[in-house]
Automatic annotation (TrEMBL):
<feature type="binding site">
    <location>
        <position position="402"/>
    </location>
    <ligand>
        <name>substrate</name>
    </ligand>
</feature>
<dbReference type="Pfam" id="PF01960">
    <property type="entry name" value="ArgJ"/>
</dbReference>
<dbReference type="GO" id="GO:0006592">
    <property type="term" value="P:ornithine biosynthetic process"/>
</dbReference>
<feature type="binding site">
    <location>
        <position position="407"/>
    </location>
    <ligand>
        <name>substrate</name>
    </ligand>
</feature>
<keyword id="KW-0068">Autocatalytic cleavage</keyword>
<comment type="function">
    <text>Catalyzes two activities which are involved in the cyclic version of arginine biosynthesis: the synthesis of N-acetylglutamate from glutamate and acetyl-CoA as the acetyl donor, and of ornithine by transacetylation between N(2)-acetylornithine and glutamate.</text>
</comment>
<keyword id="KW-0511">Multifunctional enzyme</keyword>
<dbReference type="InterPro" id="IPR002813">
    <property type="entry name" value="Arg_biosynth_ArgJ"/>
</dbReference>
<dbReference type="GO" id="GO:0004358">
    <property type="term" value="F:L-glutamate N-acetyltransferase activity, acting on acetyl-L-ornithine as donor"/>
</dbReference>
<feature type="site" description="Involved in the stabilization of negative charge on the oxyanion by the formation of the oxyanion hole">
    <location>
        <position position="115"/>
    </location>
</feature>
<feature type="active site" description="Nucleophile">
    <location>
        <position position="190"/>
    </location>
</feature>
<dbReference type="GO" id="GO:0004042">
    <property type="term" value="F:L-glutamate N-acetyltransferase activity"/>
</dbReference>
<feature type="binding site">
    <location>
        <position position="276"/>
    </location>
    <ligand>
        <name>substrate</name>
    </ligand>
</feature>
<dbReference type="GO" id="GO:0005737">
    <property type="term" value="C:cytoplasm"/>
</dbReference>
<feature type="binding site">
    <location>
        <position position="179"/>
    </location>
    <ligand>
        <name>substrate</name>
    </ligand>
</feature>
<keyword id="KW-0963">Cytoplasm</keyword>
<keyword id="KW-0055">Arginine biosynthesis</keyword>
Length: 407
């Protein structure tokens, strides 16, 4: 597997474009379009929040029942959530407009929105945006990058990645872009993630690969404990790589799955590391667990602990907060057998052994915790299972950003 420059336009046959439609923002691009030259098989996963935005409902219906998917229209600024039947009808109107402009079926168009909850979309601007984006569709790397920038809300950086693998002598590419900075919590987050690939694979295996992999990627990140109304991950495959179609779980499937995992994990970590107001990506590894479920529960409990997140912001090796968060997670373990390490580009330091503090240097610990990426590893010495979760520190700016979000 080789990482390459690019995102959603890296795979053969995919194009992207974007525009400034002034849906909410007046000083930036806020709409994007992804298009495949040929029909795609599609897979999707969506928010677990009972309150689901209209685009989530539309996409699930289309992915599950349409013969194929060929385009995605995305807007930033307004979420089209809690907008009733009118909001859902706007999804249909968006798809219809795109279908007419692209000369494809209406049910082959997916839609996605992110932004403020409760506001109706300005459909005149949405339609105008689609008309502008259609002739600008391009397979260039720049077009993919611009699309990744256009879907941002409180994100501070664009998020994209692409990789290539070889299947049966054919080069297969997987690329993706996402947005996500706040209202992010395990079991899907305020995130939109769009993955494109030219691999030839059955829809059944495409769906299964995505369903299985989100458990170890998108569902293992948290910024603030809020699960959004709009979370959506969409995976499109157009088969243009020309590899022998993957119809069973064989070596080709494993190679594709591992590459998909790399793309998803990379995008997930980019979101966690760009949490609203944050200064550091906080990674938590639980090793030596009795079961994967136990390790997942413990790691998620630590990354969602406000006290632990605040300690990371303060570069404070307050290991008691980590052990405390593990203790109330609901998972059973012996705290008197836990070893804990802090690690970053500045070094690695063992903080506690068998649940008791070691005589470590506070100065060295602070130096390690002052890096932009920090890892805490807890060995609970019960077995061979492990899990990794990603979050970020909790800063003053998180409150400022969310206090002023609608204004």
């Amino acid at each position: 597997m080789k990482e390459i420059i690019g995102g959603v336009t890296a795979a053969q046959g995919f194009k992207a474009s974007c525009t400034a439609a002034e849906i909410k923002y007046k000083d930036r691009k806020d709409m994007a379009m992804i298009y495949s030259e040929v029909p795609c098989k599609a897979a999707g996963t969506y928010t677990t929040n009972i309150v689901k935005a209209a685009p989530v409902k539309w996409d699930k219906e289309m992915v599950d029942h349409s013969p194929f998917i060929q385009a995605i229209v995305v807007n930033a600024g307004i979420a089209n959530a809690c907008t009733g039947q009118e909001g859902y009808s706007y999804c249909k109107e968006t798809a219809k407009e795109a279908a007419e402009c692209l000369s494809i079926p209406e049910d082959s168009v997916l839609v996605a929105s992110t932004g403020v909850i409760g506001m109706q979309l300005p459909m005149d601007r949405i339609r105008a945006g689609i008309k502008v984006m259609t002739p600008d569709l391009s397979p260039s790397i720049e077009s993919g990058t611009n699309a990744a920038t256009a879907i941002m809300t409180t994100d501070t950086v664009k998020k994209e990645v692409a990789v290539q693998i070889e299947l049966g002598g054919k080069i297969v590419t997987i690329g993706g872009m996402c947005k996500g900075s706040g209202m992010i919590h395990p079991d899907m987050c305020t995130m939109l993630s769009f993955i494109t690939t030219d691999v030839a694979i059955s829809k059944e295996l495409l769906v299964e690969a995505l369903r299985v992999d989100i458990k170890d990627t998108y569902n293992m990140i948290s910024v603030d404990g809020d699960t959004s109304t709009n979370d959506t991950v969409l995976l499109l495959s157009n088969g243009l790589a020309g590899n022998k179609e993957i119809t069973e779980k064989n070596e080709d499937y494993d190679t594709f799955f591992n590459a998909l995992h790399y793309v998803n994990e990379t995008l997930a970590k980019k979101m966690a590391g760009d949490g609203e107001g944050c200064t550091a990506l906080f990674e938590v590894k639980i090793i030596g667990a009795e079961s994967k479920e136990q390790a997942v529960t413990l790691s998620k409990s630590v990354i969602t602990s406000s006290l632990t997140k605040a300690a990371i912001f303060g570069h404070d090796a307050n290991w008691g907060r980590i052990l405390c968060a593990m203790g109330y997670s609901g998972a059973q373990f012996d705290p008197e057998k836990v070893d804990l390490y802090f690690e970053s580009a500045a070094g690695k330091l063992k903080i506690i052994e068998d649940g008791v503090a070691l005589p470590y240097s506070e100065e060295e610990a602070t130096k390690i915790l002052s890096e932009p990426e920090v890892t805490a590893t807890a060995d609970i010495k019960m077995g061979e299972a492990k899990a990794t979760a990603w979050g970020c520190d909790l800063t003053f700016d998180y409150v400022k950003i969310n206090a002023d979000y609608r204004s």
